[in-house]
Specification:
With 169 residues, this protein is mostly beta strands. It is 0% helix and 59% strand. The protein is built from no helices and 10 strands. Strands 1, 2, 3, 4, 5, 6, 7, 8, 9 and 10 form a 10-stranded antiparallel sheet that branches.
Length: 169
């Protein structure tokens, strides 16, 4: 024994540096803008339906496969109002709840910076539930749907591993 002490080299914790194996969780405000399409209501000629957009809360989580490549899954649900078009213009037809889980594969351009822009591509499956039709004697059939998802966003770190996020899908 040389009598000296053994010291480990000092280790600096670097925040704002996305790494392989990192998990992200977010709570966000989400604006759901449905891409609606409708034929005529069978009992009402020259009619159609439009779905109003809605604000809701969102929970999502992500995982980084490498420092640049990760994935994200969003989970949210929102209530929407269906209104008439054409001969039913302005008529409230129904309300429904929408669950649009979306899974994206993301690429972060500069994972070592405080501001980390990213793009993503993935898939969305939209489910409708608790439909409440306001037209007497009318049944509404809202079809669940698959669709592609494109994403662009940015995480802006402001304190250790806390960040603000802006995202468009």
């Amino acid at each position: 024994d040389s009598g000296g002490s053994t010291q480990e080299p000092s280790r600096t914790v670097t925040y704002h540096n996305t790494q392989k194996g990192d998990w992200f969780t977010r709570l966000r405000a989400l604006y759901i803008l449905p891409n609606d399409s409708s034929g005529s209501i069978s009992t009402i000629p020259h009619s159609g339906v439009s779905v109003h957009p809605s604000w809701t809360g969102e929970f999502d989580f992500g995982y980084m496969f490498t420092k640049n490549l990760g994935c994200e899954l969003i989970l949210a649900t929102s209530k929407h109002t269906l209104v008439g078009k054409k001969s039913l213009s302005g008529t409230k037809i129904a309300t429904t709840w929408v669950l649009p889980p979306t899974l994206t594969l993301q690429w972060r351009f500069i994972p070592e910076y405080i501001v980390q822009p990213y793009v993503g591509v993935g898939v969305n499956y939209t489910l409708f539930y608790n439909e409440d039709c306001k037209l007497a004697g009318t049944h509404i059939d809202l079809e669940h749907s698959w669709g592609p998802a494109l994403q662009a966003g940015m995480d802006m770190f402001f304190y250790k591993d806390w960040f603000f996020n802006v995202d468009v899908k």
